[in-house]
Amino acid sequence: MGKLAFDEMYLASGAIREHYRQYQGWLAQQPQPMMQARREEAEMIFRRVGITFAVYGAKDEEGAGTERLIPFDLIPRIIPAHEWQILQAGLAQRVTALNRFIHDVYHGQDILRAGVVPADQVLRNTQFRPEMVGVDVPGGIYSHISGIDIVRASGADGQGEYFVLEDNLRVPSGVSYMIEDRKMMMRLFPELFSQNRVAPVAHYPDLLLETLRAMAPSGQSEPTVVVLTPGMYNSAYFEHAFLAQQMGVELVEGQDLFFENDRIFMRTTRGPKRVDVIYRRVDDDFLDPLVFRPDSSLGCAGLLGAYRAGHVAICNAIGTGVADDKSIYPYVPTMIEFYLGEKPVLSNVPTYQCRLPEDLAYTLAHLEDLVVKEVHGAGGYGMLVGPAASAAEIEAFRKVLQAHPAGYIAQPTLSLSTCPTYVDSGIAPRHIDLRPFVLSGRQLQMVPGGLTRVALKEGSLVVNSSQGGGTKDTWILESEPSV
Amino acid sequence: MLSRTADHLFWMSRYTERAENTARMLDVNYQTSLLPQSAALAQAGWWGMLSISELKTAYQARFGDALNSRLVMDFMVRDEGNPSSIISCLRAARENARAVRGSLTTEVWETQILSFLELVRMLSQDALERDPATFFEWVKYRSHLSRGVTSGTMLQDEAFNFLRMGTFLERADNTARLIDVKFHALGSDFHGQTQEQELDFYHWSAVLRSVSAFEVYRKVYRDVIKPERVAELLILRSDMPRSLHGCLREVIANLDSVTLDPASQSRRRAGKLRADLQFARIDEILATGLHAFLTQFLDRINEIGAHVSREFLVPA
Prior knowledge:
The complex is a heterodimer of chains A (about 475) and B (about 325).
Chain A: H1 21-29, H2 32-49, E1 52-54, E2 67-69, E3 72-80, H3 81-105, H4 110-113, H5 119-123, E4 145-154, E5 160-168, H6 175-188, H7 190-195, H8 204-213, E6 225-228, H9 237-247, E7 250-252, E8 257-260, E9 263-268, E10 271-274, E11 277-280, H10 303-308, E12 313-315, H11 321-324, H12 332-340, E13 347-348, E14 352-353, H13 357-365, E15 370-374, E16 384-385, H14 391-403, E17 408-412, E18 418-423, E19 426-435, E20 437-440, E21 444-445, E22 451-455, E23 469-477
Parallel strand pairs in A: 3-23, 5-13, 6-7, 6-11, 11-12
Antiparallel strand pairs in A: 1-2, 4-5, 4-20, 8-9, 9-10, 14-17, 15-16, 15-17, 18-19, 19-22, 20-21, 22-23
Chain B: H1 3-33, H2 39-52, H3 56-63, H4 69-77, H5 86-99, H6 106-124, H7 127-130, H8 132-153, H9 158-184, H10 197-210, H11 214-221, H12 227-235, H13 244-258, H14 265-278, H15 282-288, H16 290-313
């Protein structure tokens, strides 16, 4: 990597960036034992409230098996308002284009006929759902909740530039941590919020509910919205329960639902109750055993029938995976130009598509410098981070890649920006990313900021919680702090 | 509300109640085993407890015929292979709570998960070995807290009704078993023999204490401790919160809140059982045989539980 990463708090000269000045002044005055006590307090509260995520196959100290805390870091990631405005415009533009794209590939397929995206990449994609062809969904919106992963890397001029690393349009998670992290910061350090004008995020569940209700089949003035979870052993179960509770809607499992008369009902203590909108946190494959995986008990037999008949809304729609696949990612900037006639506000990370002979050759020749990812992978599994890998790991990966090049893309190893973070030895820079959440309903909305994830291991670029990442509160400073 | 949610709430409170009653049962046996009596009698007490909890086979599979306070208490408190052990019950209560945490207030939820975390910590620090009585007291108080937080913070809607129903159905079952084991295990020759009168007193006062009814007994009867009055108090007094009649009264009050259906089988059966208790007399019950009465009671309570399940919790 060599090149010094862009630091969110400090200039290369060691001076403090303007938007961190107020905070840093405060931090410098805090006695370390107090901060240590606050860290412990935060952990205790998170554990008590049960803000945990499940790790498949892992055992925790209680032997209960599956829960782990996502480490929470006390130092916030601060983004000045003028930068957020650019991010916001770029995110809105990108999500709008992606929704247009999904609608298009399941209808006229203009973009394929225009040759902008190779038809094969879409139609032979495992995430393409032929069942959705010709199906009209409310408002033509497919991705109602989008989590767009943003990273920042130092540009040639030493300025940090934001890049979109990944679009998550299926069941993006993490928003509950965004909300809980803020709640924790306000509980631990209320004075910071009177000193700094931090844009609030706690109204996210309200916006989400509004978005979901707007998708109800017509004629339902008081639609019944539910959150569909795979159950308590899912890694994001806490979030499913949290969102259902915050929105005041039922948290259902597949076994609670049944299909009758082209409609979906849930079993209640007072008999069947009609369901209008399903915020599903279950993957497409498991939604309806009659259409997708027949062995799935996580969904509801007949769901797709009710959906296609327009009697129930599913959010996100079925088939969105065709647009957030890493093999489609390289085409998003041209997609934006194609549908909106605009220049993309946010750039992609340069990407080599290993299915192309030229790109494959380049990738194979530069494995030690590149990050290679599975096209369908997620969660930081099945990837190679060249600069961090041993020679043996690189050679093993080379064989895998050569055997199935179309399954991979490669990107230069970006030196993700860093943010000061509490570690065992004190405060040290650690790499971070950002996942803002974009809601598309009657209108497009987002709360300022998103979830900042931090790679706690020194030098690590992998921020996924399943790989030892933590989170930070993310502040959008509404205006420069008063000095 | 969702049937599955109601089911989890029902079982959450059942398991919490079961943990409490297991602690009560262990406590009374432990206290009794400290009395100067024959080792055989103490052994009989432990076997009686295991068999009335339907755990004798499981215990023997594990330990054979070896039996002492330490082994039984370990089995009933910390053995995760025993689904009725306190740790298994509190874990199950927590798992059920976790499945419906959105339907619980933050305080109810935190009470459930803290109970389990604290239990694990206490067991790892040998709290049971050091002071069994204090440990059992702690389990009881966590259950008190759980009920108190529930009635102190939960909206009194169906969720609350199913929680309460779980508590009282479980308690009715557990109290019936406790009475059965204490009357039955002693054998008929025990009761009434004057030379055993002192032991008799300790035995029955321990039983009363195990359901927090010693002072209640004195207040109600102003009499020396007599087994038939103990039975009457624990079976027929409707104002006694742990008696069979008292439990049925609560089950019915909560059933009435969730269903207005006159054809409800749960309601009909519960009402019938309550009427039987209401108009029963203890001398008649003892004359026809307490054990037979309690066995039948347990069957009927189980049936009511099964009907509640079918009607509300796990509809076909």
